[in-house]
Specification:
9 helices; mainly alpha; Tetracycline Repressor, domain 2
Length: 192
């Protein structure tokens, strides 16, 4: 039986390997949604057996990378000041959200190809909740339209953000100014 310090060292090594693999997967998949697990293992500096020892399938690895990106995004978005006028708060939220979405668009594409659609939506529950609360507040303040249901407006914002990111990645929309276009488009939808 291994000594407690040897087990602790192995556990610490495993945790470092997992962190390196997830970080490499997030970076690699954010550049190319078709990045192979072999490429990710190489970028992480681990062997295939080590990668598959922690992530049995590509879907498991992609989900871990997406969860890591969502955690980082949530840290950024939860620190935003969304108080006061809902229209101005929405502008701040959209600017920060755009940066996160633009960075993770390819990763989301990878996730949508290997994860069930319901799982991708589940993982986005917190950003959707934050957006819904702000839209409801804007409706109560009379600055956002109230003739459409809040869940539908949240979906429209989601589609605009991710659609713009796809257009930038495809080269059909310039990256400079995209944030402003997203904000104008969303505010137009929300104010009717």
């Amino acid at each position: 039986m291994a000594a407690p310090s040897a087990r602790s060292r192995r556990r610490a090594d495993a945790e470092r390997n997992i962190a390196r693999i997830v970080s490499a997967a997030r970076a690699s998949l954010s550049s190319d949604p078709n990045t192979t697990t072999d490429d990710i293992a190489q970028a992480a500096g681990v062997g295939r057996m080590t990668l598959y020892g922690h992530f049995r399938t590509r879907a498991d690895l992609v989900e871990a990378a997406l969860m890591d990106a969502l955690r980082a995004g949530d840290e950024t978005l939860s620190s935003l000041d969304l108080t006061g006028d809902a229209h101005e708060a929405m502008t701040r939220l959209l600017a920060s959200s755009w940066e996160i979405v633009a960075e993770s668009a390819a990763l989301l594409t990878a996730a949508e190809t290997v994860l069930p659609a319901g799982r991708v939506r589940e993982l986005h529950a917190e950003p959707a909740r934050r957006m819904a609360e702000l839209i409801r507040r804007g409706q109560e303040q009379g600055v956002f339209r109230a003739d459409l249901p809040t869940p539908w407006l949240v979906s429209l914002v989601h589609y605009i953000l991710h659609g713009a990111a796809s257009e930038v990645r495809a080269g059909r929309l310039p990256s400079h100014g995209a944030s402003d276009m997203v904000t104008k488009s969303v505010q137009s939808v929300l104010t009717g």
